[in-house]
Amino acid sequence: MCASYVLKFMLFWLTAWCPSGWDINPNKSKCLKYVGKSLSWEESENHCQTYGGHLAILAPNQELGFAYELCEQTVGGCWIGGQSINSSFGYDWNSSCNGLTCHNNTAADSCTLVNGTAYLVTERCNNSHAFICMLNVERKCYNMHCHREYLIILAIVSGLILCTTLAVVIWLLVYRRSKKRRRSRKISNPAASALVPPSWKVFSNEELRSITKNFSEGNRLTGDAKTGSTYSGLLPDGSRVAVKRLKRSSFQRKKEFYSEIGRVAKLHHPNLVAIKGCCYDHVDRYIVYEFIANGPLDRWLHHKPRGGRSLDWQMRMRIATTLAQGIAFLHDKVKPHVVHRDIRANNVLLDEEFGAHLMGVGLSKFVPWEVMHERTVMAGGTHGYLAPEFVYRNELTTKSDVYSFGVLLLEIVSGRRPAQAVDSVGWQSIFEWATPLVQTHRYPELLDPLISSSSSDIPEAGVIQKVVDLVYACTQHVPSMRPRMSHVVHQLQQLAQPPILK
């Protein structure tokens, strides 16, 4: 802030050397004035002398470009202080025009003109045009003006140094004070070093049984039962939650379990399912999530709820975009970045406005080995949502999540599972089904029939093609060829915008 004021003052001081109505040239050495009167070259020179100057004597390139900007409002061009003498070498600059007639008595008498078609042209000196006058800034450097100039420059430089020093001192003081405050807070607040962070709650087994009515069947929610059943619960304050009862797969220690839940509970984003708490009771482990009204995406794609509406194209694009935003947050905003590992339709929950909420962040560490093995090779030998580098080399990166999202995006568009039973070929992967349609440009046939039968906003083939192109970009075999999720979000946001009617 201080430096900006100093620079503004310095710029004002430089322009103050020129009289009112005059402009200073790029290297701050000359004052230039455009005069709109239409006079001959000699009359223009005489007029400029009344200001104590003369016609502008300019070097090419930068100064000529500046003169062109001053003169661009004049169609016929402007005289400048050069005389063009016809010779075998073209024209020469005559810089002795100051106070002289600058007339050449030869028949080739012509003077220099700057106009809008070329920087320099020559024309008979007795023609009439507007002109540009010039004053040398150096003329001001008399009677202690130069000493005053040096003093002003010294004051400006000193002011910059003082501002910079003051800013550094203030930053150091603020940094040291905040560091001391954080250190004292850690010492005085035992909860900060406790096993369970204060931002979420550790429930007892009795509390969870109470809020879920003893995990009754009436409270069971649809979802992935292979990792454990999920139940709805009602807290004493009236808010609803979802309680995930993990399968007994390993004897993970309480400290490790709480540590992992605490790490994931700190991740807050509108498109991630928030963790409200957990419970560790001997070998039983529970995770308490926020309640998302419309449940898993898998149910809406493959088991249309009774009396429920089918997902139209705009709703599916909203689901895909908001889901991509949640994944991009894990990849780009969290340091170190988080790999979800298990992106699929059952782990995407839909709210009342059909925005997507990704759940299961970190949950893959609690998934039984046999469940992960079953997902690695699905029915018919397909790999489902899992990226090939994870299947074959056990490599897992953010690009693996991008691959899984690409598979899920095609599932959202087509309404088909990653692997589906087909009478003629047995089990068929979603890409084995889609690729022939893509190769023959039959993009509308990739749409879920529910969109075509019940929706009025069926997208154009070109829009479907762009979404499918994004699918294939995300599922490139080479991980480095796949886009970042932030790029995917941008692409989906562009596709979700309604077309502009012309």
CATH architecture of the largest domain: Orthogonal Bundle
Helix content: 25-40%
Q: What is the third-level CATH name, the topology of the largest domain?
A: Transferase(Phosphotransferase), domain 1
- Give the number of domains: 4
Portion of residues in beta strands equals 15-25%
Discrete helix count: 15
- Report the CATH C-level class of the largest domain: Mainly Alpha
Counting helices, strands and paired strands, the structural category is: alpha+beta
Per DSSP E runs of 2 or more residues, the count of β-strands stands at: 17
Quick one: overall form?
elongated
CATH homologous superfamily identity of the largest domain: Transferase(Phosphotransferase) domain 1
Mean pLDDT: 80
Rg calculated over all Cα atoms = 38 Å
Separation of termini? 46 Å
Largest sheet: 7 strands, mixed
- Give the low-pLDDT segments: 95-107, 139-145, 187-197
Signal peptide: 1-23
Protein name: Protein kinase domain-containing protein
Domain Protein kinase: 216-500
Keywords: ATP-binding, Kinase, Membrane, Nucleotide-binding, Signal, Transferase, Transmembrane, Transmembrane helix
Characterise this structure.
The chain has 502 residues and is of the alpha+beta class. The protein has four domains: 2-140, Roll (Mannose-Binding Protein A, Chain A); 145-193; 194-291, 2-Layer Sandwich (Phosphorylase Kinase, domain 1); 295-502, Transferase(Phosphotransferase), domain 1, CATH 1.10.510.10. Helix content is 39%, strand content 17%. The protein contains 15 helices and 17 strands. It has helices at 2-16, 41-49, 62-71, 145-188, 205-211, 254-265, 297-302, 313-333, 369-376, 388-393, 398-414, 430-439, 449-454, 461-474, 485-496; strands spanning 23-24, 30-39, 54-55, 78-84, 110-114, 121-123, 129-136, 201-202, 220-221, 228-234, 240-246, 275-281, 284-290, 348-350, 356-358, 419-422, 426-429. The strands form four sheets. Strands 1, 2, 3, 4, 5, 6 and 7 form a seven-stranded mixed beta sheet that branches. It has a six-stranded mixed beta sheet with strand order 8-12-13-11-10-9, sandwiched between helices. The longest helix has 44 residues, at 145-188. It starts with a helix and ends in a 6-residue tail after the last helix.
